[in-house]
Amino acid sequence: MGPYILRRLLLMIPTLVGIMLINFAVIQFAPGGPVERIIAQINDPTSATDRFTGGGGDAGAQSGGQGAGASSDYRGAQGLDPEFIKELEAQFGFDKPPVERFLNMMWNYATFDFGESYFRSVGVLELVMEKMPVSISLGLWTTLLSYLVSIPLGIRKAVKDGSRFDAVTSGVIIVGYAVPGFLFAVMLLIFFAGGSYLSAFPLRGLVSDDFEQLSLLGKVADYFWHITLPVIAMSISGFATLTLLTKNSFLDEIKKQYVVTARAKGVSERKVLYGHVFRNAMLIVVAGFPAAFVSIFFTGALVIEIVFSLDGLGLLGFESLVNRDYPVVFGTLYLFSLIGLVVKLISDLTYVWIDPRIDFESRET
Question: Residue 191 above 80 pLDDT?
Answer without folding.
Answer: yes
